[in-house]
Amino acid sequence: MPLRSILLATLLLTSCGSKGPQPGPSAPGSLREAAFPIGAAVNVNLLRSNAAYREVVTREYRSVTAENAMKFRSLHPDAATYTWTDADYLVQFARQNNARVHGHTLVWHNSLPAWVTNFQGDSAAWENLLKTHIQTVVGHFRGQVSSWDVVNEAIAEDGTLRPSVWRQHLGPDYVARAFQYAHQADPDAKLFYNDYGHEFGPTKRTAILNLVGSLKSRGIPIHGIGLQLHTNSNRADANLAAAITTAAQSGLLVHISELDVAMNPGKTAGLTWSSALAEAQKAKYQFIVQTYNALPAAQRFGLTTWNVTDADTWVRGDCSCPDWPLPFDDHYQRKPAYDGIVAGLK
Ligand code: 9MR
Predict the structure, then answer these.
(1) Which 3 state secondary structure label does DSSP give 309?
(2) What pLDDT, in 10s, does the model give residues 96-132?
């Protein structure tokens, strides 16, 4: 083959095809270049088995959260059994790719194994269950998982403490003790209270900030607030801004921990993707990132999307409807939403 053809072939190979998804025209090299860590919730099975998925995660993200692999039911399916394989795989992947791992989640009312929901024991036995789980998990990942959602979704939408098994068997102060147990197991880990609905209005948001503020003033080791921000096209920008800026008034780290922007809030069965939806979604992503980017740098822990692409979003399963909530499409390509993130970072 003449030299010119070889050069042309090499150029073509590097600019399309062989490297998987390609950057859009207005995009930078990758989201890894942002001033704060941008990450995604990762499905470990896809990471193992789907090369295009793995390529996007590797190329774009400086932080990873396990979508499911570090939940109670995944890690601790029986009282005497811990299963580390998937979570360890993710930690190993992150180490190879110079990404941080955010742990999700130690104490939640959901995704519990039957042995916990059926557990019979007095309050001391429940306390031991909670403490042992937290300290075994945090201890296992000590030095590798640098932050944790210690307690997830403990507040109900009316602002009261959710009547979960934990609240029922351990009393309302289980939240504080969970943070203390996690801190004992890894004093260097950054510990978060994570919840959804800060953007719904002041009731839940105020309750969360009061809880977090009271933990902080008691000297409980809490370092940050996770705003899930599972949002959609109908949510007003003013509510999104209130969620982000109010959380920062706590003085703690702020993690946008589970961001996605659903575009079919009416759950219309036959809805199809359109450039109008793509542009509306881009504007929402840009607004959220811009608002977050305006927080004091020392409080910007990072921004994590919940899942990677529209092909693996939890939203479709949840609504049983078509939706496209993420910055990458079904073919692992960058969407206008991606450009919205980039624009918001400027
Ligand atoms: O995306 C997760 C889905 O695969 C699980 O079935 C579900 C229950 O464990 O949890 C989903 O992730 C949730 C996260 O852990 C907490 N905030 C809400 C997320 C979406 O439901």
Answers:
(1) strand
(2) 999 999 999 999 999 999 999 999 999 999 999 999 9
Q: Judging by beta carbons within 10 Å of its beta carbon (0-12, 13-18, 19+), is residue 158 exposed, middle or buried? A: exposed
Closest listed residue to residue 261, CA positions, set 318, 344, 323, 319:
323
Whether domain 3-344 has CATH 3.60.150.10 = no
* Cα separation, 152 vs 146, whole angstroms: 17
Contact 74, 118 (CB under 8 A): no
**Residue that the structure tokens 């399309």 belong to:** 16
DSSP letters along 108-120, please?
Answer: -SSS--HHHHT--
Find the helix or strand (DSSP H, E) in which 105 lies.
strand 100-107
Question: Who lines ligand 1 at CB under 6 A?
Answer: 67-68, 71, 110-111, 152, 228, 258, 314
Q: Which residues pair with 304 in a beta bridge?
A: 39
Question: Catalytic positions, please?
Answer: 153, 258
Summarised one tens digit per residue, pLDDT across range 288-333 is 999 999 999 999 999 999 999 999 999 999 999 999 999 999 999 9
Report the distance separating Cα 131 and Cα 180, nearest Å: 9
Domain edges within the chain: 3-344
Tokens representing residue 211 in the block: 């809880």
Report pTM.
0.92
Residue pair 191/223 in contact by the 8 Å Cβ criterion: yes
Q: How far apart are CA 241 and CA 259, in angstroms?
A: 14
Cα radius of gyration rounded to whole Å, the chain: 21
Q: Considering only CA atoms, which residue is closest to atom 3 of ligand 1?
A: 314
For the cut 70, the answer to whether the pLDDT of residue 14 exceeds it is: no
